[in-house]
Amino acid sequence: MNTLAKIGRKDSPITVERILKRIIDEENSGNQHAFATTSMYTTAISAWAKSKGKAGPQRAEEILRIMIAQYSSGNANVAPETATFNAVINAWSKSSNIQGAQRAEEILAWMEHMSNMNGVKVKPNTISYNTVIDAWARSGAEGAPQKAEYLLKKMEQLYRDGDSDVQPNVRSCNTVLNSWAKSSEMGAATRAEEILAWMEIASVLNEEMKPTVVSYNAAIDAYARSNDSNKAQKAQEVFNRMIDPNTISYNVLMNAWCKSGKAGSAEMAESILTGMEKRFMSGDDNVTPDSISYNTVICAFIYSKESGSSMKALEILYRMVSMFKNGNKKIELHVRYFNIVLRGLANDIKDLAVHAENLLWHMEELQAMGIKKSSPNTSSYIYVIKVWIKTLTRERIMRAEYILQHLESLIDNGQTRVTPTKFCYSLIVDAWVELGDMLADEHLPELIKQMKKINVSESIENEGRDARSNHRQLYNRRKYSLQLESREGMSDD
Fold it and tell me: How far apart are CA 419 and CA 431, in angstroms?
């Protein structure tokens, strides 16, 4: 039974319960060698608790009630124990909703009532309270942090009054802290930090409540998620109290600065990343920069829209690539990171076409090295085409056309991951039309002919269409190019 319960297969609870029922039937028929025990009932309840079905918690509680009825009728072999009730509470806590949390707390109250009865070995312990606290934290219900905190404070009071079975520990505290950290309630971040401070003080008398790196990370993250106007500074203050921050500590701190919206926040995030890199390079593997570290700072610069921010983002991206090439296995070079920078370069008020194109070729080099996730996709080429035609000259449009021709050549070489779209062609067609250059009459028919020839897909991702300069009417230009395409099609007939 124990093995089946631990496996956690879909049919495990039903199978375990059938075995229990057979033993009970044998016992009722007079077989003196077969009798159900508390352990068997607890195992059956645990099996339902580990099931992922909605009926699991209800069935676990039903078995508990059957067990108590058997005990009340005089069967001492099935006396309920704390572990039995804890298994039912655990089942309800995994419901991850307010009904499950409420029922878990009701079972806890039931335990407290039974603990006053003579001859019953049922008494709430730290696991009991922690599981109910976790149930409220999982529920995401309004008022859940307050419910979780109330139970934590109740634990502490019981422990102070001499009940050593309900000693609060760091898990108790971290669960409540996380509940506040993820709450959208006003003042949630401040309350999270207050709990952290309470843990620091309480740990003097109760070592089990000493904050861990998880505790500090949750408090920092609480500020990052908050609407506090001084969120970054407050997160920094919490970080400065840490003795051994880890990668997550740095990441959530950088995120707090990035979300602060204050001038210079991107530069502050970069300085934190630089400090992180220095600690890592000096041998502290606990603060290894990962993809999130770099992407957080990249996004900070891209969305800051301050002068030179796109180039700073490009610099951070190249630092990430360098760190990857030097063996940092926590870094994943994914195309989305490159595209974020390409989009920033395309949207920058400065002419950064050369930098954008160089980054595209660098992506292809990484692809050739076997780093497949960094392979440029259709959007990557679109961003580079856009950045070239931001300013309309014959040479720039021809360079954009060269990027498109290169994209076409990839299909000829058997690559199917990237495909030109009508949007790729319409960008260049529109550019020629708006420029009004004499070469337009030469290039436009060939572009439209090629567009028809390769039967381009309209379903390939085209994110960033609005990255064009606002001073040109893209809609009118595209409309004109499609009319031209239509006339060309009629002439072919």
Answer: 21
Instruction: Give the range with max mean pLDDT: 115-124, 317-326, 467-476.
Output: 317-326
Q: How far apart are CA 171 and CA 107, in angstroms?
A: 21
* C-alpha pair distances (Å), 221 with each of 192, 216, 234: 10, 9, 11
Ranges of beta strands (E only) in 80-218 are none
Phi and psi at residue 81, in whole multiples of 5°? Answer: -130, 170
Residues 315, 320, 323, 325: is their CA dihedral positive or negative?
Answer: negative
pLDDT of residue 413: 76
Backbone angles phi, psi at 475, to 5 degrees: -60, -45
pLDDT at 479: 41
Give the ranges where 161-304 is alpha helix by DSSP (H). 170-181, 188-202, 213-225, 231-240, 247-258, 265-281, 291-304
Distance of CA 490 to the CA centre of its chain: 52
Q: How far is CA 307 from CA 256, 312, 314, 389, in A?
A: 22, 10, 13, 21
Which DSSP letter does residue 121 get?
Answer: B
Is a pLDDT exceeding 60 seen at residue 284?
A: yes
Tokens of 308: 């030179």
- The backbone torsions φ and ψ at residue 121, rounded to the nearest 5 degrees and listed phi first, read -95, 50
Tokens 């509940």 belong to residue: 179
DSSP assignment, residue 124? -
**Sign of the four-CA dihedral 165, 169, 173, 174:** negative
Q: CA-to-CA distance for 450 and 348, rounded, in angstroms?
A: 31
Instruction: Give the whole-angstrom CA distance, residue 226 versus residue 143.
Output: 17
**pLDDT-derived band of residue 458, with 50, 70 and 90 as boundaries?**
very low
Contact 17, 60 (CB under 8 A): no
Residues in Cβ contact with 489 at an 8 Å cutoff, skipping those fewer than 6 apart: 452
Q: Supply 178's token pair.
A: 């996380």
What is the C-alpha to C-alpha distance for residues 341 and 93, in angstroms, rounded to an integer? Answer: 43
Distances in whole angstroms, Cα of residue 94 to Cα of each of 49, 135, 375: 8, 7, 40
Sole residue written with tokens 């352990």: 39
CB 310 within 8 A of CB 341: yes
Q: Using CB atoms within 10 A of its CB, is residue 263 exposed (0-12), middle (13-18) or buried (19+)?
A: exposed
Whole-model pTM over 0.70: yes
Write down the mean pLDDT value for the chain: 87
Residue 284 has a CB neighbour count (10 Å cut-off) of 14
How many CB atoms within 10 Å of residue 99?
12
Helices within 413-473 (DSSP H only): 422-435, 440-453
Give 73's Cβ-side CA count (13 Å radius). 6
